[in-house]
């Protein structure tokens, strides 16, 4: 068991560690970016799914968030959060659970993308004088995720997609307005919100999520620099395999996920401070590391020594961990426990 | 919330469902196979990590198991299991935790594969008159995993690898014997233990794990038939995308894992009863399904309808679920809760 104030090296590995100072800085920068732009920030919780990070992202207001599962919605509702947007086209098997959340919260928003979904809602009227904002079709807002920003490389490309998505959304709002419908609008994605374009000020909200943690993928896209990435997986060398010119580490796919296959010259992750090392493959609890070129100098990697992985996709890596170890300047502060399931 | 006796369709999706009758049959067949062969079965817990399945695999004895993490070891020890083999080359950061388990259990076995690991153990003598079986190097046994069976296709190839691994292990035992050392021997892998060769009777133990669940990968290898696979992920159609000739389902990589990429013509899984459908790609909470050929007949897949995924790798899929829903003949019996972490 580790205690507060200990060094990261006190942790048993593999361990997901979160640099809380970077998280706070990333969150604060997004808050300021949105304030400057004049658009409401509605942060997405799906990357971390913890109370502590949600508090940092909402500046402690516990209001105006997005979630990807009803498990998250209930978890946050249970802890005093409100104005929760469930960013998922209404699943027909979860109408009752959505109705229950609508009845207990001041504001719970669901997405509809099909007339049949509207019928499903109408079949379950809300109690206590509440109502779905759907009668006669009263639209609350339009929600779009510019997932195509993930193919971008560099700020210029990101901003081109951000501009395109914003323009499409605003044009659609104009058409709705011409039909007598006014409503809110929200677009998302960490790349576009890390480098917003001016026209995004005309939207009601933005809903990025990954930006408090960031990851190698976001640095490759250009959303952030590698120094901004707030999460790492600590792992230890547990084997020398000179006949294969490889090291074994104690991080398999249970500690990192299989996301990022074939995306990086360094394999499934980057190994901090060792640009010539590649995480070649993983089994359930083992990782195989080899040099990108040349023979491995085993004296640099004694058995038991620590290596630090920067994850390709922090959403996928965080999902594998039942607990995150939080530190400031390499000293442990405590643990964050995410919610899981659906 | 679902109740006992309800149909599987009462579950919110995605959901991992376990056919307990198949689990029991697979477990019983392995028990009988080992009895017939005359070799001790030491089942591996890493696929499911639950008490209930461990009871089925050990025939209720709660003795003689293998685990892949110390979290599993502690979980099983806390629930009265003993004679636990931690099938992991002794990690230097976990010597104290291994020592504590050795002191509280009748028998806790660790693996050594390096002289430095032996030094680590010797630095932490056990209390209460217990001792590591290492002084003067007294070997308890040899442990091998014939992971190369996973490249096999069909019983003949599996048995060739099983024979080779057994022969190598027995030859090594002979060399040890010539040096005055007698000890136990154990080999593993679900393929080799599903189709054992006669010489495996000369080993002390076998340690397969995946066989109670099995999966598509094991059926491709030839360890089992598809009918033997005891786990499924239930998912629902949540979107029609005729412009892409695709369906959206509510199972992303959080519900299935990314294991199996590029391995099957049907994508990341098989969709039961729909051999022409392919699970093309997944995001965190969405899956994209398209036909292998031809246009999609959307009338066969109404919004809200259930699809059943047979996982490529049940170890990886089970890891993504905080709870497994157990059924007999399609009627829910209850839930199994796995342990997680390290």
From TrEMBL, chains A, B:
<dbReference type="InterPro" id="IPR042208">
    <property type="entry name" value="D-ser_dehydrat-like_sf"/>
</dbReference>
<dbReference type="InterPro" id="IPR051466">
    <property type="entry name" value="D-amino_acid_metab_enzyme"/>
</dbReference>
<dbReference type="GO" id="GO:0036088">
    <property type="term" value="P:D-serine catabolic process"/>
</dbReference>
<dbReference type="Pfam" id="PF14031">
    <property type="entry name" value="D-ser_dehydrat"/>
</dbReference>
<dbReference type="InterPro" id="IPR026956">
    <property type="entry name" value="D-ser_dehydrat-like_dom"/>
</dbReference>
<protein>
    <recommendedName>
        <fullName>D-serine dehydratase-like domain-containing protein</fullName>
    </recommendedName>
</protein>
<feature type="domain" description="D-serine dehydratase-like">
    <location>
        <begin position="230"/>
        <end position="328"/>
    </location>
</feature>
<dbReference type="GO" id="GO:0008721">
    <property type="term" value="F:D-serine ammonia-lyase activity"/>
</dbReference>
<dbReference type="InterPro" id="IPR029066">
    <property type="entry name" value="PLP-binding_barrel"/>
</dbReference>
């Amino acid at each position: 068991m580790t205690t507060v104030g200990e060094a990261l090296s006190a942790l048993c590995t593999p361990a997901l560690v979160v640099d809380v100072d970077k998280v706070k800085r990333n969150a604060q920068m997004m808050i300021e970016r949105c304030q400057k732009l004049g658009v409401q920030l509605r942060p997405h919780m799906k990357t971390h799914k913890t109370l502590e990070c949600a508090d940092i992202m909402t500046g402690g207001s516990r209001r105006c968030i997005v979630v990807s599962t009803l498990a998250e919605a209930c978890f946050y509702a249970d802890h005093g959060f409100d104005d929760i947007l469930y960013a998922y086209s209404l699943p027909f098997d979860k109408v009752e659970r959505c109705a229950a959340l609508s009845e207990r919260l001041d504001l719970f928003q669901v997405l509809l993308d099909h007339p049949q979904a509207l019928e499903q809602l109408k079949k379950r009227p809300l109690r206590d004088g509440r109502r779905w904002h759907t009668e006669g079709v009263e639209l609350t807002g339009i929600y779009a995720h510019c997932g195509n920003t993930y193919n971008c490389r560099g700020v210029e490309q990101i901003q081109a997609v951000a501009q395109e998505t914003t323009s499409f959304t605003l044009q659609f709002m104009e058409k709705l307005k011409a039909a007598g419908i006014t409503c809110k609008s929200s677009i998302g994605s960490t790349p576009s919100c890390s480098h917003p374009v001016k026209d995004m000020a005309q939207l009601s909200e933005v809903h990025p999520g990954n930006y408090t943690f960031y990851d190698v993928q976001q640095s490759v896209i250009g959303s952030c620099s590698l120094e901004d990435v707030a999460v790492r997986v600590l792992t230890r060398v547990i084997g020398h395999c000179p006949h294969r010119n490889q090291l074994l580490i104690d991080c398999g796919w249970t500690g990192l996920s299989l996301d990022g296959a074939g995306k990086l010259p360094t394999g499934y992750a980057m190994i901090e401070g060792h640009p010539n090392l590649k995480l070649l493959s993983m089994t359930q609890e083992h990782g195989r590391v080899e040099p990108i070129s040349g023979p491995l100098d085993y004296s640099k990697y004694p058995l038991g020594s620590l290596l630090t992985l920067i994850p390709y996709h922090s959403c996928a890596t965080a999902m594998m961990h039942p607990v995150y170890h939080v530190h400031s300047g390499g000293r442990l502060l405590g643990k964050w426990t995410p919610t899981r399931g659906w």
